[in-house]
Amino acid sequence: MTVALRVAVLKGGRSLEREVSMRSGANVEAALRRLGHEVIPVDADPKLVRTLRSVRPDVVFVAMHGKGGEDGTVQELLEILDIPYTGSGVYACARSMDKVIAKAIFTNVGVPTPPAFAFGEDAFRELGAADALSEIEERLGLPLVVKPAKQGSALGITVAREPSDVPRALMTALSFDDHVLLERFVVGREIAVSILGTEHPEVLPAVEAVFSGDFYDFEARYTPGATELIAPAHLGLELADEVARTALACYEAVGCRGFGRVDMIIDANDRIWVLEINPIPGMTDTSLLPKAAQAAGLSFDEVVERVLGEAALGG
Amino acid sequence: MRDLMSLSERPEIISLAGGFPDTDSFPQEVFDEVWRAVADHHKASSLQYGPTEGLLELREAICRMMAEDGAQAQPDGVLVTAGGQQAIALAIRTFIDPGDIVIAEGPTYPGAVPTLTTYQARVLHIPLDPHGMSIDLLEEQLDRLAAQGQRPKLIYTIPNFHNPGGVTMSRMRRERLVALAAERDILIVEDNPYGPVRFEGEPLPTLWELDGGAGGVIYLSTFSKILAPGMRIGWVAAPAPILRKMNLGKQAIDLCSSTMSQRFIIEYLNRCDWREHVARLNTIYRRRRDAMLAALEEYFPREATWTRPDGGLFVWATLPDYIHTGELLARAIERHQVAFVPGEAAFLDGQGQNSMRLNYSGAREEVITEGVGRIGAAIDQMIDLQRALGGGR
After folding, report:
1. Collapsing DSSP states into helix, strand and coil, what is residue B68?
2. pLDDT value of residue A147
């Protein structure tokens, strides 16, 4: 360890992923203490700015997930307060958190992502978007994945197999965000690729999540034992290489910093389809990034120290 | 779902989710005086371990309290527990092996759901109506089971001011339930945390009283609602052989309930008339219930229905069946800063998806009105959306 820092660990908040964030935060705090840093846990609440002003940390470790913490909001506040923070900057967070924007960026750099259409709740309530559902189903085919545009941990995601499932799935997704995505359902292996670093990002071994059920949902993600994580995923050299290159292309295109995780599906023909990028990957006991790091021979503490070392302003 | 529920504790969220009694109204001078008495006269013993069954003075006081309501029990037939929740857990732990059948109302107490799940009970829900558990449907269920050579181990019921159902079992049904359970040789677990929290109507006999010492009922209650949940003191009254088993179970879990809390309650009961405090609470809760019922009338859609409790802490509301209250909760927390308990939490079989539990004891009238208004706004959005997506009202 180099210098002991006064680190505020920002966690919790009011996002629907609050509990996940509390678990990530607790793990990060424990690691920082083991590394000899002074740790100040901060549950993000309406007094956040005042708290940070009085605590005056050297650096903030952002361990928040979902709205407020992962979408550029707290990052903007930290910019204003002039406190260096871990992870991506304001714009990279905003670009990642909104799956619609992220998908457009992937497409622009030639990374395949399942075709999709996106709408706001207003489009259904005020513009009769429901009348276009049959065209959407025709163009994308069934089943469709209906997901909130800005929500993590697979909250609010449903697979609609029949046209009659779609309105119900939209009701679900729109409960979690006012924008939704209707996306072609790609059947395949669920692969997560974690990346560490900024100037010379290191792509960690891919992790495959094996679970029962349609997709990698909230329960599968956070119930110990519900999912088997295989790290490194058995991909073969060539495919593993392509997976790593694709993930890195997404990371750089979005402009991530410090760390991140790219989630993708590999279909039966070994085609890669990127679903999303997470600017603040989960750090819980069942999370994918710590598993990937382990496969690369990195301890959890080493990951935390490296992410902390990349803390910065701007970007 | 449980992860979402944790958001309801955030300060900026109006929570109608918890089952919080009003503890502000506990008189400061009484609190000071009782603690002083504990400190002056029982310092060492209140810091010490106590008997597993609970302090004798407390068990005697509990028997006097029960007797005032017509329920006879002897101190050696009472086990003091760490709140009513431990009493439920001990009852289930004592009788249930994985796969054993438990009859419970539908909905049932959300706090019993994880306990029943942990002990792998096979729970069969019997619907509630405004007069409590339907005994006709219970009888049909028991007949069906008997035809398959099966018999439930326990019938778990909350006859007074059901949580979350908000209804009270009628006298006739109580009599039928006790007779039916005796005839079929099934133990009843009567959970009665809210009995004295009655604002309207006449008290009804407990199942324990109706059983008349025949050994067919295990009675559970608590000081959480009539005094304070922070004490974590409840109790079980049961036939001696059952109590011995539960006592062993409790020894294994925590040796004894907090002696300090027990001593506080003893000193409190010696000095004060607990019924006066409960009467004060009931006046407060009645106003809050009225505020909630008025707000529901004003802000909930025509298609919604809800219970009108004569006591207790909760209203159970049911919405059109296309509104999933788990999803409504996500919307309510995210966009309206308000929380409630989704109905699914009160079932073990996935029912209750369009229902919710609303608590009125823990918030002031204006907060209740505002909270119900916000939930109403979230419901309206979902109704509009459902229409826009091609569904009808």
Report:
1. helix
2. 93
Q: Which of B229, B243, B252 is nearest to B84 (CA)?
A: B229
Q: B189 with B91: CB under 8 angstroms?
A: yes
The residues of A annotated with a catalytic role in the active site are 17, 153, 222, 261, 263, 276, 278, 282
Whether residue B365 is predicted with pLDDT greater than 70 in this model: the reply is yes
What is the tens place of the pLDDT at every residue in A15-50? Answer: 888 889 999 999 999 999 999 999 999 999 989 999
Nearest-CA neighbor of B195 among B159, B231, B163, B166? B159
Yes or no, beta carbons of B385 and A124 under 8 Å apart: yes
Instruction: Identify the CATH class of A116-184.
Output: alpha beta
B79-124 pLDDT, tens per residue?
999 999 999 999 999 999 999 999 999 999 999 999 999 999 999 9
- Within this chain, do residues B248 and B310 fall inside the same structural domain, yes or no? no
Q: Which residues share a beta bridge with B14?
A: B338
Architecture of the domain made up of A6-86: 3-Layer(aba) Sandwich (3.40)
* Mean pLDDT, range B135-158, rounded to an integer: 97
CATH number assigned to the domain comprising residue B308: 3.90.1150.10
Q: What is the pLDDT of residue A212?
A: 75
Say whether pLDDT at A223 is over 70.
yes
Domain limit, last residue, from B223, B242, B271: B271
The pLDDT mean for chain A works out to 92
State whether B8 and B71 are in the same domain: no
The residue type at A250: C
Residues of A in contact with B328 (CB under 8 A): 175
- How far A65 CA sits from the closest chain B CA (Å)? 13
Work out the angle at residue A160's Cα, subtended by the Cα atoms of residues A155 and A165, and round it to the nearest 5 degrees. Answer: 110
**What span, in angstroms and rounded, lies between the C-alpha atoms of B218 and A2?**
63
Last residue of a domain, one of B214, B239, B271: B271
- Check whether residue B107 and residue B234 sit in a common domain: yes
**Residue whose entry in the numeric block shows the structure tokens 């990349």:** A310
The answer on B128 and B145 residing in a single domain is yes
- Note down the domain range covering B287: 2-19+276-388
What backbone torsions phi and psi does residue A8 show, to the nearest 5 degrees? -90, 125
Phi, psi of A205 (to 5 degrees): -55, 140
- Does any CB of chain A come closer than 8 Å to the CB of residue B12? yes
B251 has a pLDDT exceeding 70 = yes
Q: What are the beta bridge partners of residue A16?
A: none
Cα angle B63, B68, B72 (rounded to 5 degrees) comes to 45
- Shared domain check, B72 and B12: no
ipTM surpassing 0.95: no
Asked if B12 and A124 come within 8 Å (Cβ–Cβ), the reply is: no
**Residue A221: band (very low, low, confident or very high) from pLDDT cuts 50, 70, 90:** confident
Place of tokens 């004569």: B310
Query: Is the Cβ of B321 closer than 8 Å to some Cβ of chain A?
Result: no
Is the pLDDT at B59 greater than 50, yes or no?
Answer: yes
Pull the structure tokens for residue A23.
């678990």
Distance CA B223, CA A123 (A): 53
- Answer whether residue B393 is part of any domain: no
Specify the CATH superfamily of domain A94-112+187-309. ATP-grasp fold, B domain (3.30.470.20)
Residue B3: pLDDT band with limits 50, 70, 90: low
- The encoded tokens of residue B224 equal 């959480």
pTM: 0.87
* Cα–Cα distance, B92 to B95 (Å, whole number): 5
